[in-house]
Amino acid sequence: MSACFKGRVALVSGAASGIGRATAQILSRRGAAVCVADLDADGAQRVAAELVEAGGSALAVAMDVSTEAGNVDVVEQVMQKFGRLDVVHLNAGILSVGSLLETDLATWQRVLDVNLTAVFLGIKHTAPLLAVQGGSIVVTASFAGREGSYGMSSYVASKHGVTGLVKAAASELGPMGVRVNAVCPGPIYTDMMITAGSLDEVNASPVARTTMLERVGEAREVAELVCFLASDAASFITGAIHAVDGGMPVI
Ligand code: NAD
Predict the structure, then answer these.
(1) pLDDT tens, position by position, 81-117
(2) How far, in Å, from the CA of 175 to the mean position of ligand 1?
(3) What are phi and psi of 24, to 5 degrees?
(4) Higher pLDDT, 215 or 3
(5) Which of 20, 142, 161, 225 could form a disulfide with 91 if both were Cys (CB 3.0 to 4.6 A apart)?
(6) Which pLDDT tens digit goes with each residue over 120-151?
(7) Could you tell me how far CA 237 lies from the centroid of its own chain?
(8) How far is the CA of 217 from the centre of ligand 1 (A)?
(9) Which tens digit of pLDDT belongs to each residue from 15-39?
């Protein structure tokens, strides 16, 4: 499905790589001006330059999504450059793997700050602008936002928090004309999850067999769902948690 974002302005966090970069690319190809926001300043610049090179309009912003100052600043920069905001993809996140009993408090808090508090801040600071003409927020949660996963307690807790927050936010923002949805990717071939080997090698490994399709996903396969949910084609969808995981069994 190809939705048209001509004249729309989008903000994508964690857009220097992986799923965020893929969303930024699709939104840009379909006509949106895109703010590429990331902690990785060089990466954000690189992706914004790619979008401009391909004929789009883009702004790179270096930010830490877990800080209120970063969230205030990115919104100010978007309004200064583009004058409106229609679509927000709150996508930046970090993975933490390790047994619960060995997880130190600082790690726990950083994972909660980046994966969950940042979503609260992102919604809080963008919703008033989206409400001006109506808009859509899509949050990247995870399979770990729906089920428990062994050895990932802080990540699982943060992503379960995200899915709860999305449902609560949707009920408050619906009357303002702002839709809020979450996507829950399974294993996706990005820097975060898959560091060992080529896509073919990973698809031949046990992680691929956790999905019914017996392969890992690609970032663009998540981004397509994000862009659908962000588009007018999804105008009656809010407060929903959408799997994009190749079919993963309940564990
Ligand atoms: P990725 O590592 O390729 O991209 C994550 C991006 O977020 C990076 O560019 C990184 O610099 C940025 N980032 C990290 N901390 C940040 C911060 N504090 N402020 C701003 N930017 C920050 O990983 P990805 O797989 O594209 O991950 C995107 C989202 O998808 C994450 O929320 C992740 O939890 C979720 N997810 C990924 C998978 C997977 O298998 N890859 C599965 C389920 C969910």
Answers:
(1) 999 999 999 999 999 999 999 999 999 999 999 999 9
(2) 30
(3) -60, -40
(4) 215
(5) 20
(6) 999 999 999 999 999 999 999 999 999 998 99
(7) 17
(8) 15
(9) 999 999 999 999 999 999 999 999 9
With beta carbons less than 8 A apart as the criterion, state whether 217 and 188 touch: yes
Quote the ligand 1 centre to 189 CA distance (angstroms). 11
CB 53 within 8 A of CB 47: no
C-alpha gyration radius of the chain? 17
Nearest CA owner, ligand 1 atom 39: 188
Mean of the per-residue pLDDT values of the chain:
95
**58 φ, ψ to 5°?**
-150, 155
Residues contacting residue 4 through CB under 8 Å, at least 6 positions apart = 30, 31, 231
Residue 250, pLDDT > 80, answer no
In angstroms, the CA 199 to CA 170 distance is: 36
CATH class of 9-189+217-244: alpha beta
Q: Which of 125, 126, 124 is nearest to 10 (CA)?
A: 126
- Catalogue the active-site residues: 155
- In whole angstroms, what is the distance from residue 229 CA to residue 224 CA? 9
Q: Return d(Cα 209, Cα 145) in angstroms, integer.
A: 20
List residues near ligand 1 (CB under 6 A).
13-14, 16-20, 38-40, 43, 63-66, 91-94, 114, 140, 142-143, 185, 187-188, 190-193
* Chain position carrying tokens 């927020």: 137
CA dist 15 and 135 (Å) reads: 19
Q: Which residues contact 104 (CB under 8 A, 6 or more apart)?
A: none
Contacts of 126 (CB under 8 A, 6+ apart): 11, 75, 85, 88, 137
